[in-house]
User: Fold these one by one.
Assistant:
Number 1:
Amino acid sequence: MPYFTGEESKARAGVAAGDTAGRGAFARMLDSDIWYSFRHSPLTIGAAIVSLILVLAALFAPIVAPHDPFDPASISIMDSFYPPVWSADGQSGFLLGTDDQGRDVLSTILYGMRISLAVGFASVLLAMMLGVTLGLVAGYVGGVTDTIIMRIADVQLTFPAILTALLIDGVARALAGPQAYDEIVFGVLVLAIGLSFWVQYARTVRGSVLVEANKEYVLAARLIGLRPVTIMFRHVLPNVLGPVLVIATINLALAIITEATLSFLGVGVPSTQPSLGTLIRIGNDYLFSGEWWITIFPGITLAILALAVNLLGDWLRDALNPKLR
Amino acid sequence: MFAFAIRRLIQAAGVMLVVALISFLMFRFVGDPVNQLVGVDTTPEQRAQLREDLGLNDPVYVQFARFVGKAARFDFGISYQIKQPVAQLIASRLPATLELSFVSAIFALLVGLPMGVYTGLYRDTLLSRLFLAISLVGISLPTFLIGILLIFIFSVNLGWLPSFGRGETVSIGGFWTTGLLTRSGLVSLILPAITLGLFQMTLIMRLVRGEMLEVLRTDYIKFARARGLSRRAINFGHALKNTLVPVITITGLQIGSIIAFSIITETVFQWPGMGLLFLQAVQNVDIPIMAAYLLLIAFLFTLINFIVDLLYVAVDPRIRLGGTAG
Amino acid sequence: MTPTLSVRNLRVEIPTRHGALTAIDDLSFDIAPGEVLGVVGESGAGKSITGSAIIGLLDPPGRVAGGEILLGSQRIDNLSPAAMRGIRGNRIGMIFQDPLTSLNPLYRIGDQLTETILTHERLSPKAAADKAERLLIEVGIPAAGARLSSYPHQFSGGMRQRVVIALALAADPELIIADEPTTALDVSVQAQIIALLKRLCRDRGTSVMLITHDMGVIAETADRVCVLYAGRLAEIGAVRNVVKHPQHPYTRGLMAAIPSLIGDPDEKLEQIPGSMPRLGAIPDGCAFNPRCTFRFDRCPAERPGIYETSASRASCFLLDPTGKPPPAETAARAVAAGIEVRAVPAGASL
């Protein structure tokens, strides 16, 4: 199997080369404009720290959270509607108070954020993979394939993402039936949100491919007989990673917001496993009767999370696009 | 100009046809229309008869043609859940949504445009930074959260403004109800309109700012400076006019997305519009309403797109007049 | 006679995060009334920045960090923005490189003209419109009256540059700064535009600072020429002297690189080895020294001043009558090349 060994040794050489290049890249990164603009923007540093704390808190929710809100043994209906600890009626064990079922609000927020972030990351990943692949194909293959993909993108752009997501959700609901739907709800959400956001990647990548494909290094790669797929992924893709990363970061905030919105509208995550949006919807019913903390604290958490991610996305966009500075 | 309009119309028709196809596929193949319409005690014979009556045994393209033909006459069938004609349901809800969307769009434009111009011209002032911070918060806060916060502050705590419904409405000509003519109607509109318009406002502001910065870098602005024109003439004559071309496009397109986004606002404020109807349809798997809503939104979007294209032509002489020299 | 424009020891800096770059360093020149001064140099030599600095439109963060600029006897580099607006377009007109982008596409030609006229002159709208039409006729636009209501995209490139010239002349300025006015145009149109500019300015007694990298244009149009290298003055003098008897080795290389129609077609054009340094990496001493074939030990060590010769003034140690002289061999080569070597090496007889 000489062919494979050849490929393998090439791959190994690639890894080794990538390694040294990686270290070089790290040193270069420290000296780069991006790193410079990061260090000189306190707001961005703050956003990065907040994002990191929130992601870590969500990741380690079972360790960090004072209570397990989904363990029936540990929650008691007797504890319901305690206000935050600094109010007159606050209970010391419940920092941000408790909800209608006696669950600790802080703990439900931590667990809820976990679900929000998981759905957010998964749907961004889906949208990115779909969009980048379709963009590469459309740009590189061209012709009818390109026309079809970009026409679909045009039609989808006619609708706001939230509407697309709602429709996909509604169709999935109809096809699956209520019981089955609850089991696949996370998959449906990721699919619905992911399919709503692929267009931007596809357009950006396609545009870059059209520019890059005519450059000499791609022609050179073709001349030495590299396969189109290899050229696309090894030579063209790295050049479009910057814009894709920017879109992905901004999309992460959007995906989290979209998931929260769907859950708030009652077509997202069920209340047995609440995300931030579900928590806000549940708490919204008690806003008028005075138990504001049940909805306001998850709301603030969601806002801070989205804001921090958006700030990072904004900074990344400006840093990668020197024209805007 | 005329050829341009025709070409646009054909494109719009193409988009509408694709959406109609999606809508039809949903209508026809997601769930069985017969099962949705009849009770459990209906015999198989009756079901077969109904299937024949509804034309569900015809070839799919015949069914699609019939679907399009009916849709063109605003016949979208009967709601599975509410058992009323969909067209009637939507017609009764349309005024509420359109009024809300329209007022929100005006609000977004009236506030967003000046803020965008200001932050574009005076990049580094304190007020600019404040506006930018507000815009970032506006983009990061989900619409429904803004609505809840506004209700919490102005309805629950201060008790100034109503938190749900349209207030008192007046019927005009029997087919349109308006809340714009009564005090309670107007008061009820404030919070929902702000909630719905805030996101678009920040979008317009950021767009105007970006365009303004872009235009201020162009050669003709530098040349205008070199001719000694006043700041005012440069900023508000030359720069703003050139900024407005893309701003008109985007703002127009935003009107469509305002209508779609009203789903969220209507839910928060229990606003009796199309969005609320659609959301209930999604929750209850009421496919005819979903299909009709999809078609209607697509129609509004393409219509607005078309108008925006024509407006664009009116503003930009390069398209309006064409070139007479190379 | 007071010069129309006098630039004294101008220094322009561009602050960056690695410290300030010096884009223009200790540059001085005058432009006499009615005179056409050509400014030449490679891209990045500081030609356009000099023009922008004079008219007060340096792109931020660039700034004038030293020296002074006098228009007539008035100092203009420290004026308030409002006062400077009264100078721009009124006493100094500017013409940019690309007529396709210099005109606002959404405004009619006539509106852009009357707007400029009314900014600087107290006229009725009617009188301004009449003047606008006269200007268009002067710059040779056919059917000028009807063309006032046309948009820029309805004109060809050459016609647009005529409109731009009309705009620059609208308030009868004392000085026109023309920044590569023909670079973006077809070759066939370039000569017409240059001839038009020259005629209009001669008729009005307007001084011109003509920025270009085209020595042919300079030779045909300018009275004097100023050669820039890396933001510094290399040589300045009457055009025929500088073209025929360049004194700075850089100018010499520049002239030798121009193809000539007369003479041997097989003769190889000379080229200057290497390229002009980036602003951040200007060598010590004379900026040109790493590329110079006459370099000697003094060149990388000290900054040369400006030295008078019979043909021009130039910044090269070969022309310095004081200080350490070059080795005899170098001096001999320089003399053979037509350079008036002033620094006589010890023991050499010239």
Number 2:
Amino acid sequence: MAKLNSKIPDGPLAQKWTKYKASVKLVNPANKKKLDIIVVGTGLAGAGAASSLGELGYNVKCFCYQDSPRRAHSVAAQGGINAAKNYQNDGDSTYRLFYDMIKGGDYRAREANVYRAAEVSNDVIDHFTALGVPFARDYGGTLDTRSFGGVQVSRTFYAKGQTGQQCLLGTYSSLNRQIKKGNVKMFPRREMLDLVVIDGKARGIIARNLITGEIERHSAHAVVLATGGYGTIYYLSTLAVNSNASAAWKAHKKGAFFANPSFVQIHPTSVPQLNEFQSKLTLMSESLRNDGRMWVPKTKGDKRPANDIPEEERDYYLERRYPAFGNLVPRDVASRATKERCDAGFGVGKTGLAVNLDFRDSINKQGKKAIEDKYGNLFEMYKTITGVDPYEEPMRIYPAGHYTMGGLWVDYELMTTIPGLYAIGEANFSDHGANRLGASSLMQASGDGYFILPNTISNYLADEIRVPKISTTSPEFEKTEKTAVERLNNLISIKGKQTASSFHKRLGKIMWDYCGMVRNEEGLRKALVLINDLKDEFWKDLNVPGTINELNIELEKAGRVADFFELTELLVHDALDRKESCGAHFREEYQTPDGEAQRNDEQFAYVAAWEYAGEGKPHILHKEELKFEEVEMKVRSYK
Amino acid sequence: MKLILKIWRQKNSKSKGSFVTYIMDDVSPEMSFLEMLDALNKKLVEADKDPVAFDHDCREGICGSCGMYINGHPHGPVPAITTCHLSMRYFKDGETIWIEPWRAKPFPVIKDLIVDRSAFDKIQIAGGFISVNAGAAPEANSILVQKKKSDDAFDSSICIGCGACVAACKNASAMLFVSAKISQFARLPQGRIEARERVRAMVKKMDEVGFGNCSNTGACEAECPKQIKIKNIALLNREFYKAF
């Protein structure tokens, strides 16, 4: 059985990365040209990696399911990107960014990786600025920042409420430059169906051309997965509706361990579900909590319009419960506090599953123009969706599934347990522990892609320079392709009555009800039964019209939903197994008398890395003990 | 509410398409346009029929995937939004809705409402970038940028690449799309260094892949879901003349 080796370099935390880079094996420029690398996904991590690797001179093949790499879901990130520049002279530093992330993640992330993410954050901002990303600026021409949840400094760089779009388009432009130079070959509208492993090493992928249905074999000396998270297990989430876990899940079934799958972030501020047909929840950026105050009426079931409720009858529950951080508590804390108020009957709106996010005081103080400058597009978007003008009335918001801290287990080099297979960005597990802080997702994805992976991958590829181009006619390619096609045929030949989406929707409801913001043993056990029953029904009653040899949107969906059934089972098992509350994982049985998460460091200060043991067999748990050399594990308090 | 949908169905790029009529009896005004199509597709799949293919992803107006001609307008009759943000409350009970793919030679239809927009990528590949490698960038505050210029660059940079401008233009011109990128970089000191090469390369590619000239009608600005301004085209022209 494989043993987990996180390969954390020796030495003091602040010097690990520098020392690592100074001693890592390199590949000379002439040899780089002979090495092929596959990158799957074109978000900030994937496109960043593909362009950086291209710049270094490797042969890169890059894949995405969208029609253009510019549409990867990093594009939708709104509020900002963190860096430890300390431009505000407010006491920020690499160490403080690192500390905030470790604490924000409730001491379930790996120190060395987190420190490194903080360390490269400044390079990321420099690079984006050089690429022409129009971050917000002050009148003197310097870059502006704002605050985000869970921290007491202002370190978030932003471009209105479209920071993700701007960073992604910057990354798309650097990718394009490498495509023009011939260093990267782009394959859009491709879905990775499986990973090809030869002699224990990742050697390629099987992909489906989504336009023609053609099955393709692609080989490489190393494979990088940058395929994002699995927040769409809830069906309704802030993710793009086609976001999926299939590539990561297939890699998992080929031997890559899956770490902390139950660590899922429920974002506190999304436009609430308005109707039963809804396909998607739209996020309202966390940055809004800089100037918006969250409140509910003090009286249960108070149905007066928000503006008619006088000040003394409003409960600003975050400011009341967490005076030190107020409205800027971390996401997990804010989401649970909101759920608590709504469950207790204080929620507003038709369903009672919403709270107010009120900008009245900020508009009075700073003027409408200042608020418009900071959040203009978000206010417009809110108005478009709901028909309500947030300059006049408070926004109504409710938590929604958003980000997955869990993902493929990787070591310090971002390599999974399959040699030659890397996972970067949201697809891996490493930097956010049990809860991610706002604006650190763009930071981590870009850091992984542009600056970390290109430095670590040479350590592996240096030993591959004598390996000629990998043939795609080997028995392994043959067999993997055959299995992938069989599965497509299986899905299409069920010929039942129900659509893939209708199953997805029901699965999402189970996950939201029993494995969402709050979990307990009884509910989780029930979820396992329900998922299993639904999975059986899926494989008996699914209908996918058409054939596999053509553009077939139902077939694409069906494959993804089939994988969600397997992933959610593991996720629930992980949630059951972790008999503590930490970060976003809140088990009702383990809470303090005042309702805060109660960690159990003696028994659970580890990363749960799950190994796939074969069809129908229980997963095997491997534990990576988390050692905190720099930071003392404390009760995480924002009071 | 009840709606009569006239949807362009086309099996693939080689076949000839035509409008097919579908009756939807139970549309809620709370649905988005794409959710209404989801409901239609659910019915079709349950009857083992081929669902209507359309591009979509983020469903929050930012990825630029979705886009269709609705009653003669790209992204439908409501200004400044994408199709995914178009609410059914803007339609009347009993209304007939015509739904077509983008019509432009450089955007061939792939299936039903899906078109091939890779011509846009080709233009960006030709020159839509600033040549800087990861690791080579100077400290971010070492180059100061006037707030006004930076804000203007931002206003140009928010193009989502959906193709509505091309679809709206009777010449199928991509000038608004190209000018948005040119203007963003032209306004920033970081982008000035290779401004000449960029504008020449992008305009050349734009012509090569078959987009027409600016029709001067302003249809692109009127239909752009992100309200990219036509003054970007003026700046593109200026940059282009300066480049020779």
Number 3:
Amino acid sequence: MEEKTENTQESTSPVPPKKQNAFVTNAKKLFQAGIPRASLQDYDKTPPTEEELKENILIVNHLKKYFPVETNLIGQPIRYLKAVDDVSLRIPYGKTLGIVGESGCGKTTLGRTLLGLYGKTAGEVYFDGADITDFGERQMNTIRKDMQVIFQDPYSSLSPRFTVGGIISEGVAVHKIVPRDEIKDYVMALMERCGLQPQYYERYPYEFSGGQRQRICIARALAVKPKFVVCDEPVSALDVSIQAQILNLLRELQTEMQLAYMFISHDLSVVQHVSDSVGVMYLGSMVECGPTDRIFENPMHPYTKSLLSAVPVPDPRRKKDRIILQGSIPSPANPPSGCRFHTRCPACMDICKEQAPVYREYEAGHSCACHLYPQE
Amino acid sequence: MKEKKKGYISYAESRQIIKYNKQQIRYYEKLKKRKHIPESEYVVQMRDENNIVEFDDLHTFFFTDTGTVKAVDGVSFDIPAHSTVGIVGESGCGKSVTSLSLLRLVQAPQGQIVSGAIRYRMKDGSCYDISKVPQEMMERISGKEISMIFQEPMTSLNPVFTIGYQLDEVSLLHIEGATKETARQKSIEMLELVGIANAEGVYKSYPHELSGGMRQRVMIAMALCCQPNLIIADEPTTALDVTIQAQILDLLRGLKEKFDSSIMLITHDLGVIAEMADFVVVMYAGKVIEAGNVFEIFDHPSHPYTIGLLRSKPVINKKVDELYCIKGRVPSAVDLPDYCYFKDRCDRCTAACGGKYPEFVWLSPTHKVACHLYDGVKEEN
């Protein structure tokens, strides 16, 4: 878009730029300050192989989601908040990928961008064997029933004006999952499967406790028979005993319906329990990703190590020699130079402050971005 | 005749409840608002000189329109000096109301301390029953002797005043002879003490300019301003990330050593309890069901609820296929049954559980549990 306007300016204006008035020059400067869209896609597009597409329900390459924080005179963004910056991941059919990180690291934005709730800035997404990178709104609607979401707060994610039956059956009716006259039976059976009594069909959400509301959310997500569910902190608002009930339910449903989950949470012990592989995010980018056992037994990135050591363990005799990170997460609108973690890193070197580390694979499926390990 | 619906109350019942509530509230408010409360009512003796606080059969009820909610129903435990007592339980079990009773901050007029005593030993050695002291005296105790760190630092800091103003307020109120200048110095000193690097800058800023961890540090600075005897920390790290949580817990532990105070730590996270507490009190539906020192509770949890809580939390590097879960949920706080409240969720029920509420059984000098499973142990001892 940028190049196009420049060309037209050159060809149409016979006056040399020197003689332009101050307003035009200023406007042009501001115009050029905008980040050209082309630079956001400065990587080699490598489509996944047939085999990879068959194995994985979701393949994401170099996904970026930037929010404009400052715009110039004509409304072009000149500074971005890089909420998700260059994230690549893949989720096999029927498996769970856990995403951990502190608040503000972009894990929720990542989930929402994958679902198409936010338009992505750049990157490729392959879902269920198809390239959905350039899907528009109408095309997205056809695959929406295959990807669903369970939100964090069961108190604000249910409409108070719908009955439980209405909430769960809405998607079923829209996507024509079952014939119209069978909807009620279908929904009641599903409610029972999710641990809700079928006679709750006519009740309203305010009559339920947090755990039961979360069950309604789960039933709503599963009503359209999805293949992939984004669970955005589904248990963090719940009590410990209710947490265990919901986690067990999610796991049972996974084996029953062959679901793939993306499980976003800040609670590492929960993530370890549910996930097959784990991705650790820091300030918008993935710092480490690998199989759950490897991440928890042999973490590579210093951030993962300190996260793991910060988790309180219910054992009073455990030695308390932990790595306590100093400071808090920097603002993503103004990230530090080089490696984004260098301001808090206990093993910071000079190179970390200048050069961003390469995110590469070290062992089978175990990737990391850190200067402590060979970069080439 | 229409069948009586469960969980709904009729008009007649509702009127009856409201009448009863009015009567009760008037009685307790009158007791509190007397002009001269004789000293003999609130000056007491501690049962044990080493304790700083003794809860003795405390009952705090809420008179609501749907019935009397027994939020705290006969709670007794002690807080020894220079130690940390952790209180665990699910939401709605009365752990926050217990701490609010200690500061007399229970939402009046619906919420009232109905009976029982909270004995508190002041810095100067005199002992008072907090549940009966006059209001003027309470104003001298709260903030200066006992202070509280609340759960949500965003909602407990006033958004329209600067951090400095809110910190100065504490010193000006409680420290005798404090001027604006000394209060300012004290506030900045406190901010530095809780690990805020840019204390002068934070002093001038408003709460919304700070991150969650920083706000919690400010709250801690505010609570410690007068070097209190007892710090009540009500879920101090629940709203924070693990890395920030580790920082705050570390800070609290350090400051407790420095000021030689006691901490009453309220949380639902057993990991935090294991790390911080010396003594643990487990609460369920307004009652203490198990109490003991931290090793007893974590090595030999005795009440089925405590065991369930410990097993239902996934632990890092301890692989289980399926999490243990306590079935059902906490019973409604209005009309609780007269048998053990945990009976309907318990998987180790015996015939005795249908009987009256179990009494405490002492398993060791410090470890007590309220469960019919241990009835035999009592006879042996």
Number 4:
Amino acid sequence: MKTVFINGSPKKRLSASSYFLFLQRLFVGGEKVSETLRTPADHGRILAQLDDAQAVVFCLPLYVDAVPSHVLRFMEEMQAYCTQRGLHLAVYCIANNGFIEGRQNEPLMQVFEHFCTRSGLTWGGGVGIGGGVMLNVTRILFVVDIALLVVNTVLSVARTGSLFSPDAWVSFGTNAALLLYFNLGVLFYLARMGSAIRKGAPCGKKYTRILIPSFVFILFADIFFVIISLFQGGLFRGWLAKKAYEER
Amino acid sequence: MKVILHDLGPEYHALIESKCNHALVADGRYAPCQGCFGCWTKHPAACFMKDKLQQVCRIIGQADEIEIVTKNLYGEYSTAVKNVLDRSIGTSTPLSTYRGRQMHHTLRYGKHDMWRVVVYGETSEAERETFRYLAERNAINDGFARSEVVFISSLTELEELL
């Protein structure tokens, strides 16, 4: 069985979609091919992968409540390609948005259902994830956590001659457990969808989110944007101002 | 101010321009949004791409009423129209709030009146339902008080609708 994973994020690296795609791949067996969809130049390469595939997993961000335009452009071509060649793949979708409610991905899921209907493809279902950006940050924090463990172990060897530093491992374990907890909803539903992909079965639409209270999430999201805007300078360029249109 | 965003050919441009204060033509020749958030964090309400959509959020943001004329594509806007909408998120700020009992961004230009969509092209009943739902979501997200979706079977109906 061959499954094609399509990363529909326009970002070159470290996108939230690439993180969820990585997680979904862990729960799917057989031949797995990952492709990035950023420009029309990617279309031919991805479409060629569909010929002998049984399932396609779109992994993409929510843009203005629906599918981003560059992915829509690909879907139009994919419809023509699949219709022409009589392909009847199963289509699954992992959508993520920056807001905390995963359910805000519902219109996007419906668009994929209609795409499947028009293309003669089988709609397998999807997972809508809220707090995608912040969940993506947890993977970076996990890498930082590992780096800290290595540094503390080296310091422990230098100070006591022992490779095992209990404090470093307790700190690492606590942080890792917390990060894992934030991701539990996503892991559960991606594991569930992975099982459906393996069986070629439908799994319906499910919505989940980062597992923290909404008001805490909003506070952290605001702090995140203040810090980014501070470093990028937007904070000092009329950050919240009603900018007037300037004729050029 | 009334803004019309459309994906129609040049033969409709005069009609559209006569019906609004600002017409935005989605001709499919613009680069798509790169998801960098620069229009929030680096150069507020402007895109780093220096094309005709660089300040499109400033036009949409100041509209009391927006009308979107679009061909149906799976219950969503056409690729060309969606390209313009994706490039317009600078209408909001990076800060968050609750609107319609869900998280959304605060509005850079305050509240608006009507988000109206005119859909042409063959559309199934299920796609119509999605379009109504999508327009409702867009209206909440962008701070419009009302949303409406009209489906037309022919573009000849356009003149009396706008």
